[in-house]
Amino acid sequence: MKDLDNIPELMRDIGAKARAASLELATASAERKSAALNAAADAVWRRREQIIDANRIDMAEGEAKGLSTAMLDRLLLNEDRIRAMVDGLRAVAEQKDPVGAVIAEWDMPSGLHIRRVRTPLGVIGVIYESRPNVTADAGALCLKSGNAVILRGGSESFNSSAAIHACLLEGLRQAGLPETAIQQVPTRDRAAVSEMLTMVAYIDVIVPRGGKGLVGLVQREARVPVFAHLEGICHIYVGATADPAMAVEIVLNAKTRRTGICGAMECLLIDSRFYSQHGPILIEALLAAGVEVRGAGDLTKIAGVVPAKADDFGREFLDMICAAKLVDGLDQAIDHIRSYGSNHTDAIITADDEAAATFFRELDSAILMRNASTQFADGGEFGMGAEIGIATGKLHARGPVGAEQLTSFKYLVEGQGAVRR
Description:
The protein has 14 helices and 16 strands. The protein is of the alpha/beta class. The longest helix is centred in the first third of the chain and has 19 residues, at 7-25. The chain is globular, with a radius of gyration of 23 Å. The protein starts with 6 loop residues before the first helix and ends in a 7-residue tail after the last strand.
């Protein structure tokens, strides 16, 4: 029985077991890993009522704590979302195994044949807040990439995550892989997070997935390398040549499909020429959908628009709220996104190929889109099966972090008695 009061000892024990499991996983066959994921998917679907019952407990506690509507939506599990979780597990299982894949190979005049091949990172620590599906996504992607993982879910999703984790363990058992390959921190004590951030002997990288407070804390205090993004301040710029019907549909989807995810639109930039030709159709559509629009300049003349404050731009609302502004052309839109964006996901709606090319060239967000909703900023929608998060840094991984992004590489060099002169 683990001593849950002695957090340093508890975390060292988890770390040591993860490190040992990572050595076994690094050489596990693609077939065994896929078998574990498919068995886990079967278990999740078979136990869906138990998972929903556990989620009801978390939802009730969340409501009692006064969690926002957006946070409760992140926390909620229903049969459709469990089906999506199962589909994600199966999709990751079906993907080509990244471990050992040859990235590049070449011959040298010295007689050396050199290959650069993918290799696991080792042990990954994932710290996340209210979304219990991250338990399945992170566990699946780490296993697929040959990494052991330590999962520290938020206190809000403690019961839901535990129920999902039990299914992952069943998958590991059936495939003959060590159960310590996917471990969940069995306490809500926040001291466990502080321990994880300094476990350089056991953890190779930390992935925080949550709000600005969590990610900022991790980036400030971690001694372990971090894959992170601070916020998803996603912009949509509606260009002068945008099709109005397409623009309305994309903007509504980007803001209202799910407001609590990092790919939700937080700021709408409307080209003044589009506005002159088509009027306030975008703003009126958002208002009709129940969105609080915080507008600047002439947009404040529209009935129902709330005058924007300075800090409404560059803000992640994660709610039925968005900022909006008119801009005089593409250059002004780009300047605004550079000033207020978070390098997560930004989109342009336009029929102008040259404008789209400029938008793609001059902005450096991890994901740039044309004529598509920012809600597609998701590893599953990119064909990765799932994602462990969206990384906005520029080192190692960027954008949706799937199984391939959870690998490093090594060089395999072969000769025929080669010696250096």
